[in-house]
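Example record used in the benchmark description.
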Amino acid sequence: MKKILSVLLIVPMMILSSCNDSEQGIEQPKVEDEALIAEFSFLKSDNPNLKANIYLDIEGDIITGRVNNNTRVDNLMATIEYSGAELTVGNVSQTNGTTRNDFTDVVVYTVKAADGSQKNYEVDVAKFTGLPIIYLSIDGGSNIESKDDYVEGNIWIDGGRNFEDFSNSRMEIRGRGNSTWGHPKKPYQMKLRDKSAFLGMPENKKWLFLAEYSDKTMIRNTMSFEMGYISNLDWTPESTFAEVYLNNEYNGTYNITQKVEEGEDRVDLGGTGYLLEIDQLHRLDPDDVYFYTDKFLINIKEPELANNSSEFNYAKDLLNEFEEVLFSDQFKDPVSGYQKYIDLDSFIDWYLISEITKNVDSKNFSSIFLNVIPGEKIKMGPLWDFDLSFGNVDYADSRYTDGFWVKEHDWYSRLFEDPAFVERIKTRFAYFRSKQDFILAKMEAHAEKLKWAQQENDSKWKTIGVYVWPNPVVLDTYDAEVKHLKSWYVDRMDWLDNAYNGL
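Model output (structure tokens):
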């Protein structure tokens, strides 16, 4: 009996001892009857271009991470902890400390177990922030210091995984913007020598680099464009984000956009039309040509005209005639009233996007574009300059989700006196309301696209958690800024829904 008891006591002790050895890190024999990657890393000792060791995240069979300095990813050596009999890429066996791979695109690793079973892992390594990288080199290493005078230089683009590379080309570049030019991170206008496709956008010569300095999320302009893409507006600028190096120094994340100008793939004026802007006298350039209505200063952006020419007088007379009829006693008449002069679909969609976002300048100040081809009706658009929208302003009531804003624009205030116009607004708002989840998903997608870019941009410009004119709130993280944007938008849509139903 004592012998039996002794055996019974010894067996559990042996089992416990075996478990303790495993828990204390005593090396166990390699398990080859399962296929599993436990850790994936790039060590600086094997990859001298790296700043530090990089450890990738593993979720299921997806392995992700980034090389957090701007260096090549086409010849990296990985260190991999795995269980299994063999690790391969394609038919090539992988050996730590020896095998290098090109991670420009997703690389599939296969772990094979001793019993012949296997598991595939997709390894997705982003270069720097995953965005395309633009290199600007100014002749003589000079800075871009003027909004009026171009400086010459070269541009080339590393398109990364999602865009074609752009070969080294000559270009001219200058500053741009009004209040945005006063920020440390400058916006630019670049002009190529020849029309070229650029970051997947239709070919042209002129391209804008929006700094998005006041917008901590960097996506307010982009989200307004997203609304434009699902609207009845003829054209909304295309844009994409990119990292920009200026004279070999990192200059931050920029929103690269098409310029609002005449063109078949931009504002199509048919060769005889006009691109107009409601603007302010102090914002005009010395060579701008403009006229007044009773309510607004109208700047003729295109074409280039002489004062009092027949083309100039056509635009001046048309806008004044429209405004005179709009404020006449017969303005509601569907034949001889305001509907004779304006394209209602564009007027309604431009208004609703501007009102939903509560863009501060769209009430009466600037960047209020309209266009017209002789013999046709006046159209509103395109959308432009929405970085101070979605409540991102501390000097006006447009910061609040409650209250109308663009409805107080002189033309729209009068249009809202027509019950037929109000009904069309209510019907069309229901369409944008139905797209609310779509817009929220787009916000999340664009923020996700910038998850690493915003870190590098903030490391350069240090704006997160700091007041930047004219922010109404200062939040400590990028994620908090995006959450605030989404919450503001939802509250705004709720308020407008109730407000329009009450009209």
